[in-house]
Amino acid sequence: MIELGKMQTLTIAKKSSEGFILRSDTAQEVMLPKSQGIVNPNDTVIEVFVYKDSQGRLTATTQQPKLTLDEVASLRVKEVTKIGAFMDWGLPKDLFLPFREQTVRVREGKEYLVGLYIDQEERLCATMRIYDFLRTDSPYRIDDWVTGIVYDVENDLGALVAADQKYSALIPKTELISKLRPGDQVEVRVVRVREDGKLDLSLRDRLVRQLDIDAQRIVAALEKGRGFLNLGDHSSPQAIRDQLGMSKGSFKKALGRLLKGGTISLSNEGIHLEKNN
Description:
This protein is mainly beta.
């Protein structure tokens, strides 16, 4: 049968003035317009993608789109209109992203992670609600690093991430050491592989190395502040995050290491960089 939204191999049934008639094993037919591909005269079968043209007719093309049914890809917004947005997916007819399928309001020229689905009117459309599109069979193990794209942020849960743009993952709320938004690309470490195959991620390195990184960040801030930083043990978590981009727990651990090494000293005013460092 002919499947909307998928690459498939069809038989070349006959040539017409408009192009080629392609036939499936169930005798369904679809037109491959001359403008949509070149056919070798010796070929009897051809691989095509099937979608609907601007008149709503099933149409075949030899062009491979950037996204096929039930997959996820990062696409650029070409135009934002009153009814939704249109995205470039490599075909003559742009892909429609309805307003109701947008988790954030999209902007022209920006790229967003979307999935491809068939709506109630049998049209191919994009959606930013990709949770159910993502796979749970990743090859990753604990402490592996992976590149991901944030596709949603839930205040009570954390940042939802598509690892490698295909695997279901989460940066838990406790691991959010910086503010993330949908569309942000992140380099993250796998901290847990759940029984269902989904990944828990962290923006931080393993504890020992991360302590070194956090300590270096504090020293760099001290040097920039001419040896003083108006933070301390009683500073608010938000003040620490704003100035250093780390949680209060990480700040206190790194502070303890620097104190033990004699790199810094503390006063009621804040942190001082020792002159011999």
